[in-house]
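[recover] target loaded
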């Protein structure tokens, strides 16, 4: 019998995400704003298995990377195994069940789109469901955070929060609140085709911060002021103002040293093509550039981004 022939005990899904403003400074307790991107998602399916708990992960969309993790005791340190162990702890089970948990995803990996958080949230939800329990968004976020720590070192917690809540969020110092949107947000997401390794980029900013705390803290304060302005613009549906805040945030990220010429060129091409604002999103050093756009101009701006070197673009509209 192949896995596809066995019945599904439970399944769950979690969206991708982008950070509108505040990446990196959020690691230092400043505020950030993030929104879910539902057009890409991770999915976990639980089936009965003859052996122990097996996690089978196909995260790289199209590439079919597959690996299997047996969760027995403390052995595996793979982020998804850590998430699975966290759920077992939450359930109060000291022995793993005989389940096959398959995790797949359409979210491009290591691009700042929350692929690891979404995979972990989908997995913890599906496992809880297979046990006849339901996780609240806060509980799913908390359990997935343990996998995020394993994957990224010292994550702020914004990714697992926005992905588990599936709502626009304001996040600061571990505290999140939902953000009402005054208007839907049409976004074009441009994939640079390059990885944005969060752990390395966060470490690089940490090094700069250690070397010149006053200067870097001042940049973080500038970003915080932009987040405050953006929050008002967001609630009023003032996309022009929100876009300006995003573009100013990009200038701060450049000062932090996490942008580069190719990302700057993508930002410039989006602005020249008529975007309200554009910036890198996530850790930087690669990953994605996001552009806030007038809805009707989305296809044209996406084309401009591809002409400027984006490997791929995603057009999406974020709603509350
Ligand atoms: C998260 O997508 C991006 C960073 O802000 C790291 C974090 O918040 O943990 C760079």
């Amino acid at each position: 019998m192949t896995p596809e022939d066995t019945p599904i005990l439970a399944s769950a899904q979690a969206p991708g995400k982008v950070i509108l403003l505040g990446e990196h400074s959020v690691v230092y307790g400043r505020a950030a704003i993030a929104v879910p991107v539902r057009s890409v998602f991770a999915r976990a399916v639980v089936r009965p298995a003859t052996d122990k708990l097996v996690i089978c992960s196909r995260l790289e969309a199209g590439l079919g990377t597959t690996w299997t993790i047996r969760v027995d005791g403390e052995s595996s340190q793979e982020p998804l195994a850590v998430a699975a162990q966290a759920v077992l702890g939450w359930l109060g089970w000291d022995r793993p069940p005989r389940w096959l948990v398959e995790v797949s995803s359409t979210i491009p990996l290591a691009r700042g789109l929350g692929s690891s958080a979404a995979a972990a949230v989908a997995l913890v939800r599906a496992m809880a469901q297979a046990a006849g329990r339901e996780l609240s968004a806060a509980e799913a976020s908390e359990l997935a955070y343990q996998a995020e720590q394993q994957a990224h070192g010292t994550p702020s917690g914004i990714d697992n929060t926005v992905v588990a809540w599936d709502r626009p969020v304001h996040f600061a110092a571990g505290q999140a609140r939902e953000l009402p949107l005054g208007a839907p947000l049409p976004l074009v997401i441009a994939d640079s085709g390059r990885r944005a390794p969060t752990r390395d980029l966060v470490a690089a900013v940490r090094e700069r911060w250690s070397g010149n705390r006053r200067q870097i803290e001042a940049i973080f304060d500038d970003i915080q002021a932009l987040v405050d302005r953006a929050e008002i613009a967001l609630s009023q549906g003032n996309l022009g103002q929100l876009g300006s805040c995003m573009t100013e945030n990009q200038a701060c990220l450049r000062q932090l040293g996490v942008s580069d010429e190719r990302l700057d060129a993508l930002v410039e091409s989006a602005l020249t093509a008529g975007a309200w604002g554009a910036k890198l999103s996530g850790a930087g050093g690669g990953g994605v550039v996001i552009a806030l756009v007038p809805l009707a101009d989305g296809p044209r701006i996406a084309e401009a981004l591809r002409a400027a070197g984006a490997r791929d673009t995603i057009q999406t509209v974020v709603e509350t």
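[recover] notes: The longest helix spans residues 213-236.
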